[in-house]
Amino acid sequence: MRALIAPLVLAPLLATPALARDPVLAPPIDCVLGQSCYIQNYVDADPGPGAADFTCGTLSYDGHKGTDFALPVTLDMWQGVDVLASAPGTVKAIRDGMEDVPQGSEGAPDVTGKECGNGVVIDHGDGWSTQYCHMMNGTIAVQQGQRVGASTVLGQVGLSGMTEFPHVHLALRHNGKVIDPFNPTGLIACGEEAMLNGTLWDRDMVYHAGGLLTLGLDTKVPDYESVKAGTAGHDPLGSDSPALVVFGFGYGTLQGDILRMSIFGPEGEVISHDALLDKDQARMFRAVGRKSPGAWPIGGYTATVQLIRKGAEIDHLEERFRIDK
Fold this sequence. Notes:
Layout lengths: L11 E2 L24 E4 L25 E4 L3 H5 L3 E3 L4 E7 L22 E8 L2 E8 L11 E2 L4 E4 L10 E8 L2 E3 L25 E2 L4 E8 L5 H6 L13 E11 L4 E8 L2 E9 L4 E11 L7 E11 L2 E12 L2
Antiparallel strand pairs: 1-12, 2-3, 3-10, 4-9, 5-6, 5-8, 6-7, 7-10, 10-11, 13-14, 14-17, 15-16, 15-18, 18-19
GO molecular function: metalloendopeptidase activity
Keywords: Signal
InterPro entries: Cell_wall_metabolism_enzyme, Dup_hybrid_motif, M23ase_b-sheet_dom
């Protein structure tokens, strides 16, 4: 069962006028950030063996050279989400024909030397280029040498190459050097200071330091694979359901965060539980439920999942449902 991503606004990332030689970028995916998609990873700003995003946060990993615009669950990918050119230019290279199989799953192909998967490279002139990775097999919609404008459809989001979740990896380079579009100057700063340096984006962006992707309801605790796929929580809920379970799926969570899950019904609290998260995780899910007391009361129910960090709620999802028979 899907829900929109609640906005976790730390600070706006102000788009500033770029120098004449710099590209101005549009997001490379046809979605609404913070609702139907989110940013899972930023460029690694740590020059050493560690990893940090441009705010000194944890949304990156060692050596990551792009920005990952991700879909909440795999089911979204199969509905078709376009990958878009971020700026005008000429298609320099394409690759297609690689299967959409997440790494780590049974039968995943060897992608050594082809970690980008199906993708497109666009030359923007003056040494600037963008690369778009992990696109869906058979959807590349442009040809080498073709001139494209900003927001030209290049293909669709997929699972090809070295990836475990559906997303488009956007890498920006200038004369071969990786440039973070959120921090083009490369100045080292943390927290709100990092968000005042300006970006190369054509619009204001919002940095989300982790959050919730979906809230789901089920009659049993689902397995993690079905949660990531978006197929969990499809069992009908009735007065004879063996249990009522609420689960939350999130990203960018930190050790010490609390995932607070609850269900309230016509007669008050059904279940409420605080799950203390014991480590930093790129993505995670937790669930809590209660066995049937014999028959669930008829009427309206509310399920809530909250992500709490250092005593403050940073994200919140809520769903109302009814049990009528």
